[in-house]
Amino acid sequence: MAQFKAAGVESGQRQLNGPQTTGRQYQNLSPALHGTIREDNMPVPVRDGTELLADIHRPDGEGRFPALIAAAPYPRQLQDLGAPAAIIEAGASDFWAPRGYAHVIANLRGTVGSGGTYTFFDEQERKDLFDLIEWVAGQPWCDGNVGMIGISYYAMTQMAAATQRPPHLKALFPFNVTVQAWGASYHNGLLNEAFVTPWFRALGVLSAHGDRLYRKGLSRLVRKVLAIPAVHHGFRHADVAKVHHGLQLVSRFGHDAHPWDDLLNAVATEHPVRDAWWDDRDLTELLTRVDIPVYLGGEWSNVALHLPGLFKAWQALAHNPHVRMAMLGEHGLPWPWESMHIEALAWFDHWLKGQDTGILEGPAIRYWLPGAEQWRTADSWPPPATYTALSLNADGSLTADERPGERSYATDGANAMPAQLSWTSDPLPDDLDMVGHPELRLTATSSEADTGWILLLQDIGPDGESTDVTPGWLRASMRHVDEDASETGRPVLPMRTRDPIPVGESVDYRIPLVANARQFRRGHRIRLILTSDDTRKDFRPMMLFSHALVGIGAVNTVHSSSRLLLPILDGE
Known about the structure:
Largest sheet: 10 strands, mixed
Helix content: 10-25%
Structural class: alpha/beta
Number of strands: 27
Number of helices: 13
Strand order of the largest sheet: 3-4-6-5-7-8-11-12-13-14
Strand content: 25-35%
């Protein structure tokens, strides 16, 4: 039976949370005219005989329609729950079906009722995605034009599918994307333990259940409560800390060891450096095959998981003339994900329906500049900038001129030594727009053969209030740089081996900070924090993603010849 209740931004519609455009107006957008026909648990055969399960939300009108596929290991049944959970990321079906799109939400192999065994972002997953796309394109309600949508893992599968070049895949809208499983699991050699451990375990818990829990009984009441407009509106600024805590709670329930604990063990223990196992889960080279339109996007705050992947994807797609990119400010992609839907509608109406919406007008890149609180544009990434070098001085200052000396800290804060160091600039005489890839050229000694370098760049206001801007990381034993492939701000770190550092000897490191944007206002100060332990209660890592400790008990000494390199927009 068809249902009609459209979501959107117009009066009388269920109001979507979050920003809906990059500050632009569009024309000729598909209106909400249709009711929705829903078909749950549809079997989708793939080439080896395995069946994936999908929920289909499609327009009730006559004729055929383009389709948008969202595929991930997360429960498809919960994508309309309306909860601020980091697994509800497929998009709003009640927005797409009324506007003439079939929204197909599929579970990957081995998850939530789909057959087979989950294999984590590998070649098998890519083959399944090809078959899923071609199956959807061949359905009697589909006009053969297929796009993909969704954020996070739903964005990752978009890129994975595109590398296989399925003939009916016409356009993508991947926001908060990762193109290397290594990069989400390890931050330049440091295990992203606070994320990967609960994530794999939570997948095991969630995959053990089905419709009885997710669609029936108490879940029906929960849906009604979460759909109350005042309740729903309150989720527009969902606290990342609470969402992360929810993931940890779910992970504590029982789950099958296979494949979830096996995969976790492979990530955390069996493959601690980049090897063939990780290469099978790396799309970087494969993306050179992709020539369909891709609208990349992310939010500046997602530094510990997806933001690095966004810029790797942009770089890998440099050959493709049909790529756009948008970076959003704080709360740009809240859960449940339903932001940027008007932007996505303008994109898909253009590429799947042939409507002139205006989405291609203007520069290819639009980004929100925090601090200035305004949209900026660029024709290339990173925008033209000049690097400013600041010395990490012995007196704790951060200045253009070096003040010779050194400072030490203990990784465990023992021996009356600090557990972290910080360097702070003088108040800025003028506004300073930092946009691009910062880097720390660190010169340091350590009392151990390995340690972790963990950075945090902050904006300090006149009242002393600090705002986290972006972090950086490096495992000291994985410091090798491919200098021929590197440039300022973007050292290429192969991560293929671990090479112990010479104890007590001065070593040079190139540590990338996650690319970001910030206007440091006049009168504000710039601060850099360095530690080796972000699990401490007095240190709050961005997104709360802390790392497995390396070199416990080490005493690390930083020399003032170290330089923080900041990309400052030309003309500033």
